[in-house]
Design goal:
Length: 282
């Protein structure tokens, strides 16, 4: 995922191409580290979300119309950054029939044409649980399919009121059953009021639906209007939970206070490939 870029170069590039990054929109604490290495998680479908989750800094409201030129511009940005691993995410677009799955697919294919040796990771919304939309993304052959459950089952209705824990597990299950299956990944935040037994139960649920890769990070309240931080987990707790998750059967786990969904993403993919003993798409 490393390139020859720097913070200013990435900032200028995404601006010149009228692109959005989750690094900016979600106020990621790792933006200087990642952009300083010439990497960015590119956000599709605009920067206005149809959902209003209690943890997320991305703007909620009425999105703009689809931008048909976005896939090619994203591919151009990936090529100019010389990315070896491209991470694509998006806002939720419940206003669209397919939730924006067609834009994900078109972007993946555009990147494959211009960067055939790059691996591609998608971090998708739940598409309302619509398997046709999930299939549309999978048909484009991403190397990693990521969808975050974000928190434990008990807290879903408070933290993600327009989502559902079972629906998110269903998205991951559908992706894991695809042939050939991409590496399946999900993420959980700490500090929202969950207990350790609830976290362990979440790890178990994710493994049961085929999840191989896991990210664990500290929730940070983006504004006073968002969910409050109930607890700051110490670094040693993240290390211990990483070890527990690996012992349970995950191929790779990134765990730490500042870990976010796409942090060290290429390294996690390498761990899934090592476990499988083969490339994701031979």
């Amino acid at each position: 995922m490393r390139t020859d870029g720097d913070f200013s170069a990435v900032h200028d590039l995404v601006g010149d191409l009228s692109l959005h990054t989750v690094c900016q929109s979600a106020r990621c604490p790792n933006i200087h580290e990642c952009w300083g290495q010439g990497t960015a998680t590119l956000m599709l479908l605009g920067d206005i979300c149809t959902r209003d989750c209690a943890f997320c800094a991305i703007k909620a409201g009425r999105p703009v119309e689809l931008d048909a030129g976005e896939p090619s511009r994203v591919a151009e940005a990936a090529a100019k950054m010389n990315l070896s691993h491209v991470v694509l995410t998006s806002v939720a677009r419940d206003d669209l029939d397919d939730g924006g799955a067609s834009i994900f697919a078109a972007t993946i294919r555009s990147i494959q044409e211009i960067l055939p040796d790059a691996s591609i990771e998608v971090l998708t919304p739940d598409f309302g649980g619509d398997e046709d939309s999930i299939q549309k993304v999978l048909e484009a052959c991403p190397d990693v399919y990521n969808h975050n459950v974000e928190t434990v089952r008990r807290l879903q209705s408070v933290i993600r009121p327009q989502a559902a824990y079972g629906r998110s597990l269903g998205v991951l299950r559908a992706a894991s059953r695809w042939d050939p299956a991409p590496a399946i990944k999900s993420g959980v935040m700490l500090g929202l009021g969950e207990s350790e037994p609830e976290l362990i139960a979440t790890f178990r649920d994710l493994l049961e639906v085929g999840c191989e890769l896991l990210t664990l990070g500290q929730y940070l309240q983006p504004t006073r209007n968002h969910a409050v931080v109930r607890r700051y987990a110490p670094p040693e707790e993240f290390v211990r939970l990483r070890d527990v998750a690996l012992e349970m059967g995950f191929a790779g786990v990134a765990s730490g206070p500042m870990v976010r969904s796409s942090y060290k993403a290429e390294e996690l993919l390498a761990q899934a490939i090592q476990r499988r003993g083969t490339r994701i798409h031979a």
